[in-house]
Amino acid sequence: MSYFRKHLDLIAGYQPGEQPQDGQYIKLNTNENPYPPSPLVVETLMENLRRHRLSYYPSPLCDELREQASTVYGYPSSWILVGNGSDELLSIVFRAFLGNGDRVLYPYPTYTLYRVLALLQEAIYEEIPFEKDYSIPEKILTDQAQLKVICNPNSPTGTFIPTPIIENLLKNSCCPVVVDEAYVDFAYDNALSLLKRYPQLIILRTLSKSFSLAGIRVGFLIAQPEMIQGLLKMKDSYNVNWFSQKAATAALQDLPYMKNNVEKIKQTRQEFSQAMTKLGYEVLPSEANFVMVRKPGEGLKSEYLYLKKNWILVRYFPEWPDSLRISIGTDSNMQFLIHVLKNINKDHKDDL
Length: 352
Description:
Elements: E1 26-27, H1 39-49, H2 63-73, E2 80-83, H3 86-97, E3 103-108, H4 113-120, E4 124-129, H5 138-142, E5 147-151, H6 163-171, E6 177-180, E7 201-206, E8 219-222, H7 225-232, H8 242-252, H9 255-278, E9 282-283, E10 290-294, H10 301-309, E11 312-313, E12 315-316, E13 323-327, H11 331-342, H12 344-351
Parallel strand pairs: 1-11, 3-4, 3-5, 5-6, 6-7
Antiparallel strand pairs: 2-8, 7-8, 9-10, 10-13, 12-13
Helix pairs in contact: 1-8, 2-8, 3-4, 9-11
């Protein structure tokens, strides 16, 4: 006997990448930043822990953090909603705009959490394949729905939709349009400039990637104030804890540190992409902190397992068996991965 709503029994929940806690693996599977957060984050936390009363609730709207985010993103704090990671903000958006039978459109392949969130609302999700060049499908540009979502740069492909194309989508859409910019600090452009002109636009940002703060779970939703006021009705009372608010505020105060790490990752991404191409892999052009490598027509599960055997975790998706998504780590991380892959054929022969 099930006590759950009937449709929940038919849903498979989102499966995050492996998160071993023993520190033995080189983790290149969940797009974390290989570099530590700004030293200012640790200094701020240590200073505040000595004098803060943890028995008090945190600021429900993250007032200090919103003000700091305002200086970074260029919009007043009334345009910003803070979440327990951008995943919580996605959940808020899906709950706010989708109900039984409503439609959400997004290009595919993409972040599979969108599918799960739609199913939880008993909504109809339409996964429309990208064009061959990974541009937005015409159907998403022209069809109407209750919600449209664009992950940009896209995960797992790393490909990027230019801002003029995003604006064309907004011109043709009467519904809310979410542009999920979790990886945009590694890209050459973003959609922030469109916010004033399009009241249906919702932009998501996170501190998990470029700011090296995946462990504290802080994200931002940026939209016009009327949109923010409506979405606040869906938010939990104290959704971001005091510790995370302080750490995030400090991180946003040290943008040069973040930008320096981003530049290092972009340089490593370029060098790693060239090395993988020489090994015979197709490497999709990436504007994120990861690359997707492919061998069309060949399964790459054996490579995934071989890397894992050698203490390297990358992301294998059964839905796309000819591909691996590989996060960009340090130079030494990526050089070791290349070294391991060069030995894969030799080891396979030795096993025969």
